[in-house]
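Thread title: Can someone regenerate the structure for this chain?

I was given the following input by a collaborator and told the matching structure tokens would be attached. They weren't. Posting the sequence so someone can regenerate them.
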Amino acid sequence: MADVTEWSKGLTVEVAGGGVVNHTGSAALRLIADGVGLTGELSRALTPRDRDLVHDRGRVFTDTAVVIADGGRVLGHLATLRDQHELFGPVASGSTLWRTLNEIGPLQRDRVAAARKKIRARVWKLIAARHGGIPPSRVADRDLGRQIVIRLDATLVIAHSDKEQAAGTFKGTYGHHPLTAWCDNTGESLAIKLRPGNAGSNTAADHIEVLDAAIEQIPWPHRRNLLVTLDGAGASHALVEHLHAADTRPGRRLEYSLGWDLGEREKTAITQVPESAWQAVLDRDGDARDDDEAGVVELTGLLRHGPDDDQLAGWPKPMRIICRRERPSSGAQLSLLEETDGWRYQLHATNSVHRDIQFLEARHRPQARVEDRIRCAKATGLGHMPSASFAINQAWCQAAGIAVDLLCWLRLLCLTGDLATAEPATLRYRILHTAARIIRGQRKRKIRIPATWPWANDLTACITLGLALDPSG
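Best answer:
Regenerated them for you:
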């Protein structure tokens, strides 16, 4: 039988030497933030003009985002950079970080958002130069071309201790209920609004605020053709009216696809649909599914011109209601109608006029991708509010949004293959947490990555790009 402890034979340990650093890949994130000009813009946004500070506030805030991208969950994790002094140089203390975040009020948050908007425009030019354009959002067997897709969704963040504005949630937990917006094309975080745990899922004012902030983040040339998606919990009359008003602005086409409640009027309309009117649902490859599995139909005509007159009279005229049906999965919660006829119904509203309903149904389905964005964001700072202070947690959410962006930019500007779509945990293991040696000579430092590391060339490409970027360009 083989000796299962053979690996440790002749192994010893000592403390000696130097020049070895960990988290080498995080230097690539820091270089990218510096190279695209983000650090400088944050410095102008956050550094007070009437005080001389040891640590520039923009540098501190960028380092916070880098640490969060690296996997940091609390303020004390800034030591991840501080302990690698040979690579990162002087890094602020935990108390300086606390003061930096505590100084960020509404005005500073607006300035940070403005800085992100300015830098995002610069980064999108770099992305377009590398990929020939901004990556299109994919739907079934096709993509949406140059249309930029904004996806909104709320999520729950559990609080395990007393925190300001933490409250009971609709799921019986305790914590906060942030509302988020994401760019489906790039995966970037466009806006995060931290809210109390008991904030409503369909609070129109919150959704309008986050939507406007997200649209503002899209660089202007790309803001002319937008699609906004949202599940049914957030669709409200005020939001739909706001979307229609935004669609009428000169030089902009704004389509939307919003989840719609299955109410009594919709159930009545469904019972009036002849079986022959149902069309096939397209699967993820664009092929038609079997009619016995799923179907799609438009209810707009029945709701507008049915026997009960116009039941959508208070809603904008261009709005259409699309209904999808499929066989329910085991354990699904069904209405009486659904239990009776054996179908589960899902509806959405849209203002897309010149589109067939098969495509519109397939286009709405990828809204579920927002759950993946949020899951990855929760693994990148959003899943834990580090302070009892609501103001500090708001600033933390902004830093977490920047951390998500840095990981997106790393993938889009530097990486290829599987790494170009890798999730945070994979990027941390293969790229960010890599150990290397610092070699000094001729008044320069060189990062020497072990040749045996499988992703050494990928990490080299990341750092090389970061060093090549010009913040003034």
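The chain has two domains: 16-108+388-468, 134-375.
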